[in-house]
Here is the input.
Amino acid sequence: MKPGLIIKIAGTLLLARWRQTLVAAIGVTFGITMFIALLSFMMGLNELLDNMILNRVPHVRLFNEIVPSEHQPINQSREYKNRYNFIRSIKPSINRQQLYNSIAIQHALEADSRVKGIAPKITAQVFFNDGPVDITGVINGIDVLQENKIFHFDEYIIAGDPTELNTINNSIILGKALADKLLATLGDVVYVTTARGTRFAMKVVGIFQSGLQDIDKVQSYTSLATAQKILNKPNDYITDLQLQIKNIKEAGTLSKEFAARFGTNTEDIKTSNAQFETGSFIRSLISYSVGVTLLIVAGFGIYNILNMLIYEKMDTIAILKAIGFSGNDVRGIFLVIALSIGFFGGSAGLIFGFLLSWLIDTIPFHTASLPTITTYPVSYNPVFYGIASSFSLLTTYMAGWAPSRKASKIDPVVIIRGK
Here is the structure.
C-alpha cells in the first residue's frame, strides 16, 4: 500500500481514540521533560563542582619533591654490596624545593605546541601574627596575569583588585576565612613570619573566596617578587610550574614525558583528582539511569494503550485485511501510531524540559561559600536534547512493535465469522 494511505489511516485511528492517545503522549512528554530537567540540573551541578576544583588545578604540575636519598653509602661499599642493608631514619640528600633552570624550562615549554599556558608559582609556609597568636598559613607567589588567564583567579576575588599585587610592594590577597580570623579588611596591614623567623608587614589589597573553607582558612597570594623577597631568594627562584595543555586527555602522557625531559617531579590532573572524577561520573550515571527509567515507564504505558486499541479495533483490522491490506501494512499502521505518539509527545517534552530547566536556572541560590553563584546551576548541553528525542522514538517504537506484530497476524475470517 501507499505510505500516504497508511499514515492517513493511522491518523484516523489516533483521533478516533484521542483521549487514550493524549494520555500516552502525556506520558512521553512527562518522561522527556523530567529527563531533560534532571540531566540539565545534575550536569550543571557537576560543571559547577568541576569549576571549583578542576579549574583551580593545573593539568600538569612540575615541582621538586623532597624525598629520602635512594643511594646510601653503605650500598656502594664492596663489603656490603651483595647484602640486604636495612637503614633507619634516612634523611633527604637535598632540601631545595627550587626548580633548577626554571627559566630555561619555561622557555622550552612555551615553545611546545601542546602547552596552552604556563603559570609559575612559589609556595611558602608562614605564620600570620594575630597578636600573641600565630596562625599557620601558606603564601603563594603568583604571576597574576597568568593566574587570571589559566585559572580564572580574578573570578574568585570578592573584594579588591588582584592586579595591585604587581603595583603595590609587599601586598597580599587573603582567603576570606583567614581574613575573618585576622579581622583584616582592604587597606589593613598584616604581619607574617617565615619559618626562619623573619617578619614582614604586608598590605591587604584583596580578599578571595574559593568556596572551599579548608583552603580559604590558610591560603593567601602575593606577587612572585614579593614571595622571593620574603624567602630571601634570587629572582629565578620558582617552586612550581603549572601547565594548562590543549588536550587534557594527554595530561598523563605529557606528565611522564616532562618528568624525564626536565628531571623534575610531575603530577597530572587525573592523578591528583581521581576521587573527584569518580564522584562526577557516579552522579552523571545516576542522572542518566533515572531519566532512562522514566522513558521506559512511559513506553510501557504506550504498550498497554496500543494493546487495548488492537482489541477495540479488531473489526477495523479485519476489514482492512479483507479489502487487501497485508500484514505488513497493518503492522506499519500501528508502528506509525506508536511513532506519532513518540514524536509529538517527545517534541512537547523537549519544549517543556527546556522551560523547566530555564525556570530552575532563575531560582535564586545564595550561599556564603559560593559568592559568585546567584542561581541554581543548569547546563543547556544540546546532547541531552538529542539523547532525549532519539530515546523517545526508540522507546515508542519498541512499545509499538509487539502490538503491531500481533495486529498483523489477525485472521479476518475468524473475526468476521465471530461477529
The radius of gyration is 33 Å.
